[in-house]
Fold:
Amino acid sequence: MIAHTLFEPLGAVIVVGGTCLATVLRCGLADTREALASAGRLARPRFDAARARAELAGPVQEMRQDGVIRAEPHHFGDPEFDDVTDALIGTRSLSALQAAHRVHKRRRMVRSRSAARTFEQAAELSPVFGLAGTLVSLTRLPVDPGAAGDFNAAISMAVLTTLYGLLLGNLLFAPLARLIARRAAQEEHERQRVLDWLETQVAPALPHQSSAYSAGHGAGQAGGQAGAGGAPGPGKSR
Structure:
């Protein structure tokens, strides 16, 4: 009984169909497809930083033992880290690793922002089409005062279309936009942690970084010994 009372086919078509059509016209087909794809990805497992580190641990150990020159690329299905390790092995440079990471990060951020923006537009448009459905229902008010049934049906449609617009915007589209943005921010944070760990692990195995590290470490030790030998003790006289 409640479902029958709250369901108005014409009002639902006006609100849902009008909102979707206006969103496509405003945002474009490409952004709309990306928004739907991003919404579908929410049902998939999140990026697993622990698994990524476990997959990279073996190749990293080989690089530290045998050097980057002898290392073989190791792909485990993550496009970013596959490209990052390829760039690292191919150029033996952390700058290439960071550049590959920036390319993938920029691509992901563009996708997530366009998807969130599309759902935000839909959230803004749905109450507008709720109002449009209300206006359409008011045009169906009977002229004959005796047609009480038609009058009640028109008023019911006016109320329900307004309700549909509010619910669609605030319980579906707006939460989807925020969820996509939060998921993207969390993934970027986890990926950055794995990348920082990877840089720390492979830096000693790279020619330039390892020599710079050794030179800096040796200079620090020499400076400490010179300071210890040249400074007079508290009990010695000048």
About this structure: The two ends are 103 Å apart (CA to CA). Residues 2-209 form one domain. The helical segments are 2-6, 9-27, 29-41, 49-66, 79-91, 94-138, 148-202, 207-230. Residues 210-220, 226-238 have pLDDT under 50 and may be disordered.
